[in-house]
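Limitations

Structures in this collection are predictions, not experimental determinations, and the ligand pose is part of the prediction. Treat each record accordingly. The example that follows, with zinc ion as the small molecule, is included so readers can see exactly what is and is not provided: the inputs are given verbatim, and the output is the predicted complex.
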Amino acid sequence: MERTARGRYETNLDDPEFTIMADGTRFAGFFLGDSEDSPAVFPMQVTADQMTGTVTASLSKPRTHEDKPRTHELQRIARKQRLAAAFRLFARFGLYEGSAGHISARDPERPDCYWLNPLEVHWAQMRASDLVLVRSDGTVSGGNATVNPAGLAIHGQILAARPDVVSVAHSHSPYGKAWSTLGRLLAPLTQDACAFFSDHVVFPFSGIVLDSREGEHIAETMGSMKAAILLNHGLLTVGGSVDEAAWWFISMERQCQVQLLAEAAGTPNLIDPETAAATAAIAGSPEVGRTQFQVLWNLVSRQEADLLD
Ligand SMILES: [Zn+2]
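Predicted complex:
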């Protein structure tokens, strides 16, 4: 379809995107919504009255999880917005140290490429338009932006090794970093901690990750798991969406904090393995990860709407 006209429309939504077909009075439009994959866009029916010149737009149906983005471009916009929101939230929660750390999102159209944060932009000011595309050969497209070389070494390799993964999150968050010095897996101390039960690994430290082979080794060590504790370094999480990778990181940081507090106070009671595994099946599911992130998205995308730019 070709954008040939814009018209007056009647809707309570702010600035929906729409296109009028050159030869007709009806078309299917989209309104960019508030989810990464579903429902990232809302199908919208538009009717144009050629006599009066009035264009009326309305959502064709309520939001459902079947409302998939219909074009790669729309999906890309939505995914980059979720990624920008993740940076805002990490900054809000203090999950960073200077320019260390990175969160990536695989491109929906070119799965060998991914979006990453430029070094020049503070996470608290990240907008969707600031993100840069990294190609499979590690080169960066667009502008003069630079990216963290460790980010290239880690994200490209994990995304290449894990077709099930859309997003990787890593930063030098304080409690994750403190816990990482102990070289231990997180214990199933609480219901929330069970999300990581038998679903994370400890990866040895061998200096700053600048060699892509180190990224390969991290991916190999993780297998199909959702998280890694990088020894003497920090946390790393992955997910089938930006929402999941970001939420698991935020939650894992909390579990590190809780276990440090509990062990400083005494000897915590452990949830037995059978109960922990059953709890993990629910608390650690992708659906829970997306649901948990959604409320944070609702908050930050309204309070800091410039992240959508
Ligand atoms: Zn790092």
